[in-house]
Amino acid sequence: MSKNSLEISPLMIIPAYLVGEVKSKLAYVDEHIMKAEITSAGDKIILHLDIEANEGLNNRIVTKIQRVVQALVKGAFKLKVQVLEDFIDRPVPCSIDPMPELLRRSELSQEALGIFVLGPLLTRLVAYLERRFIELADSFGAQPYRFPTLIPARFLERVKYFSAFPHSLTFATHLRTDLDAIDHFANQAVCDEQGLNVPPETFAQVNTLLSPAVCYHLYFALAGKPLKDGQLIATAVGNCFRYEASNLISLERLWNFTMREVIFVGTKDFVLDHRELGRLRMNKVFEEMGLAYRVESANDPFFIGEFRRQAAFQSAFQLKYEIRARLPFKDPPSVLKTDYATLAVGSYNYHQDFFGRNLDISLPDGSPAHTGCIAFGLERMAFALLSQYGLEMKSWPASIRKALM
Ligand code: 5GP
Ligand code: ZN
Question: Given this model, what pLDDT does residue 52 score?
Answer without folding.
Answer: 86
